[in-house]
Amino acid sequence: MTAITNHLPTAELQALDAAHHMHPFTANGELAEKGVRVITRASGVTLTDSEGHEILDAMAGLWCVNIGYGRDELADVAARQMRELPYYNTFFQTTHAPAIALAAKIAELAPEGLNHVFFAGSGSEANDTNIRMVRHYWAMKGKPTKSVIISRKNGYHGSSVGSGSLGGMTAMHEQGGLPIPDIHHINQPNWWAEGGDTNPEDFGLARAQELEKAILELGEDRVAAFIAEPVQGAGGVIVPPATYWPEIQRICDKYEILLIADEVICGFGRTGNWFGSQTMGIRPDIMTIAKGLSSGYAPIGGSIVSDEIASVIGSGEFNHGYTYSGHPVASAVALENLRILEEENIIGHVQDVAAPYLKEQWEALADHPLVGEAKIVGMMGSIALTPNKETRATFAAAGGTVGYICRERCFANNLVMRHVGDRMIISPPLVITTDEIDMLISRARRSLDECYAALKEQDLLHSA
Ligand SMILES: *Cc1c(COP(=O)(O)O)cnc(C)c1O
C-alpha cells in the first residue's frame, strides 16, 4: 500500500476511513455513506480540512485545546523527551523527572490540601481510578460498606465500564450492561429542561437536596462519595443555579461523603480559574483531570488527591495502575502546556478579555427567535433551541433533530459548534481573540438564521 497522507484525494481518504476506521460515538454505516470530513492541519483556533476549508473551532477539539493549536514548544519538548527517555514505568519503585515535575506543578496549582497526583492516560481511566480509590479508602478506614458512589443523570465521566457507569447517559447504559453495581444516580440541576414552574434558585436547592435524600435512603454507612462536574459539559453545558453547589458542599460535609469534582473540562482555565471548583466555591477531596492538562497535545489524565486520602491509601499497597501512568512524553508535554498557560497569563486573558467579551455576545443570542436561554461560564457556553421561549417548549420532532440541522449549518459556515440534543454548545480555545469571537458569533448567528429558515420550510417549528 502507498503511504496514506494528506496529499491523497479526499474521496480516497474517505473510502479508506470508511473501510477500516471505527469512529467513537458514531453510526459508522451512516458516516460511510455521507463521507467523513478529513482535518489536515490546525493553527490557533482554526482547523483546515482536506478541501481547504478554514474552520473556526469553537469546541477546542473536544474541549481540550486550551492553548490553541500549533504551539511548536510542545512538539519540541515531546521530541526531546522521546530521545532522552521515551518510556519508563512508575510501578516498581522507579520514577523519572517528567512525572515528578508534573505532579509537583499540579500540586502547586491545585487548591490547598490537594497535593498528590495519581496519573492515568485519560479522563475515563482517572475516574476508574477514583471509583477504586474511594472504595478502598473507606475499606482502609474500617468502613468497607461505604461503597456506593452517587452521581447524576446526564453527567459525563468517560466511556470505560466504570466511568461510563458513573456517568448518567442512558444511551450509554443501554449498551454493554452498564451501570456496574453500587452507583446511584440523582437528578441534574438542569432548570431549563426540568425546572417546570419553580424558579431557578429553588430548583437548584431542591436538586441539591436530592443528594441528602439519597444518602438517607441508602444509609450514611453505605455512601462513599459524590461525583459531579462543576459545570456539566457533554450533557449540554448545564450551568447550575447559584444555590446548587453550596448546598451540595453542606451535605457532603454533614455526612462525611467524599466530594469528587470531575474537572476534566472545567480544569486548567476553562471556567476562568485554574479549576471549576474555585469558580463554584467548592472544596473537593479528589479532582479528575485530563483534556486541558495537556491541551490535547498528548493523552494524559489523572486524579488530584487530598493529603488525607493519599495518606490512608499510602499506608498499604493500592493494587492499581496503568502502563502509561505518568508517561514521560505526555508528562513533559503537559508540563510545557502548564508553563505556557501560566507564563502567558492565559487565564488572565480569559478573565479580563475573552470571557467578558464572549459573555456579552453570547447572551445577546437570546434575542434570536430560535434561542431560549443562553448560558455561559468562562469559556464554556450553551444555548437552548426552542419553538417557544415562554413555555421553554421542546420540539415535536425527535430530540436532536433540530440541533443536528443547526450543527450542519454551522459546519457549512465554517464553524464547529456542537449540538447535544437541541442545545448548541461552545468551548473555544482560551487564547481566542475578540476579533475571532466576533467571527464566531457572526457565523453562529448566520447558522441560526439558516436553521430557522430550514425549520420553517420543513414545518418543524412545532412544540411537542
Ligand atoms: C471527556 C470527559 C471525560 C473522559 O475523558 P476521556 O479522556 O475521554 O476518557 C471524563 N469526564 C469529563 C467531565 C469529560 O468531559
From TrEMBL:
Keywords in alphabetical order: Aminotransferase, Pyridoxal phosphate, Transferase
Keyword Transferase: yes
Molecular function per GO: adenosylmethionine-8-amino-7-oxononanoate transaminase activity; pyridoxal phosphate binding
InterPro entries: Aminotrans_3 (IPR005814), Aminotrans_3_PPA_site (IPR049704), PyrdxlP-dep_Trfase (IPR015424), PyrdxlP-dep_Trfase_major (IPR015421), PyrdxlP-dep_Trfase_small (IPR015422)
EC number annotated for this UniProt entry: 2.6.1.-
Domain of life where this protein originates: Bacteria
Keyword Nucleotidyltransferase: no
Any matching Pfam family: Aminotran_3
Enzyme's top EC category: transferase
Cofactor(s), by name: pyridoxal 5'-phosphate
Coiled coil: none
UniProt cross-references to NCBIfam families, sorted A to Z: PRK06105.1, PRK07480.1
Assigned protein family: Belongs to the class-III pyridoxal-phosphate-dependent aminotransferase family.
Name of this chain's protein: Aminotransferase class-III
Phylogenetic lineage: Bacteria, Pseudomonadati, Pseudomonadota, Alphaproteobacteria, Rhodobacterales
